[in-house]
Design goal:
This protein has helices at residues 3-26, 40-67, 76-101, 120-147, and strands spanning 69-71, 74-75. The protein has a two-stranded antiparallel sheet. With 152 residues, it is mainly α. It has 4 helices and 2 strands; from the N terminus they run ααββαα. The radius of gyration is 24 Å and the shape is flat. Helix 1 (3-26) packs antiparallel against helix 2. Helix content is 70%, strand content 3%.
Length: 152
């Protein structure tokens, strides 16, 4: 199985777990004298199986990520961490721009006037650079995901 396929399967397992959780909640209690639509014991059993399969899959993915060379001196796990950090930094600066760009209407000169204390244009340029780095790195990661066979 390719790493990309394992990642898709992981996502499917996570969705299935969420659905099972919701079904368990719905069937956790019923009106006195009525039966639940689904047997909570069976749902718990199914949930346990899916959680076990997900755990095993995640362990294989993590092992593969830590053993797969991304580029000289860097593993796929390192590249994933770098991508995540680029995404966090980009989000922080995007939020900062959004907050600094909000205009407050004043109805009289006695009201407080707010001005941006950052250079929005320069900060936006930095966000664009981070976005470009993120896209380039993400593309390389996705390519490697489709070329890498997951280790059992």
């Amino acid at each position: 199985m390719k790493l990309a396929e394992a990642l898709i399967l992981r996502s499917d397992y996570q969705k299935r777990i969420e659905q099972l959780k919701n079904r368990l909640i719905v069937n956790a209690k019923t009106q006195e004298g009525e039966e639940p639509n689904e047997d909570p014991k069976e749902l718990r059993k199914e949930l346990s199986n899916v959680l076990s399969e997900l755990k095993e899959l995640i362990q294989k993915i993590n092992y593969t990520n830590s053993k797969t060379t991304f580029e000289a001196g860097k593993t796929l796990a390192d590249a994933l961490t770098e991508r995540e950090m680029l995404g966090h930094e980009r989000k922080i600066y995007s939020d900062l721009i959004e907050h600094a760009s909000v205009r407050h209407e004043r109805y009289s000169r006695s009201e407080i006037k707010y001005v941006a204390s950052i250079n929005i244009k320069e900060t936006q340029k930095y966000v664009d650079e981070l976005s470009q780095k993120y896209r380039v790195l993400d593309t390389k990661i996705q390519e490697l995901n489709w070329l890498t066979v997951i280790e059992s």
